[in-house]
Design goal:
single chain, Arc Repressor Mutant, subunit A, 2 domains, Tetracycline Repressor, domain 2, 12 helices, mainly alpha
Length: 232
Amino acid sequence: MSATPHAEDGARPARRRLSVDRRREELIAAALELFSRHDAEDVSIDDVAAFAGASRALVYHYFGGKQELYVAALRSAAEELEARLRPQGGGGPLEELARGLTRYFDFVEEHAAGFAALLRGGPANRTGEIGEIVDGVRRRMLWLIMNEMRVTAPGPALRITLRSWVASVETAGLDWLEHRDIDRATLERLLMDQMVALLRAAAGQDGDVEGLLRTLLPEPRKERPAARRAVR
């Protein structure tokens, strides 16, 4: 199976003398590109080396093996995505959430391979250290949303609502990369509208969520315009 990825994707022809850090970054970038297109078990060290224009021995020197390379590549993508999600301040909760969503899709657009590699894969790739990396990004997103909403201990209805929205954002990112048949700004507004709709549904089941919704949308009858203003 190892011949398939680099035969299909094309190896980079020339090897260049680079600094240690730069060479490591290139190897990680090559790994993310291949792991985003193929199942991890179908990508070999030889594939990554050929795609990066490096030697097999060099990949082993930096990472020790394919599993270590896979973990390093996913961790690199996760760390950059989390850095993009750090709040900037200066707005209300929905406004800050909308800005964070824009930065999230900036990462999706600029680092498509890293985003796809981070989120795609079968159950075999979701255990142990790899599963911790992926789940860590989701926990960080959930914490940031709750922090913006000034929530420290969400009840079941709110927790499920927010986790469902995070899953929707992930799915929307992968779908957008695959099809790109919707304007990004429109997609972001759609996701913000979905957040408001999910909160309203949860408010019908939980008084605490209803109170939270009042603080987020002081004029409940105008929630759609408010959500759109937040995105803009």
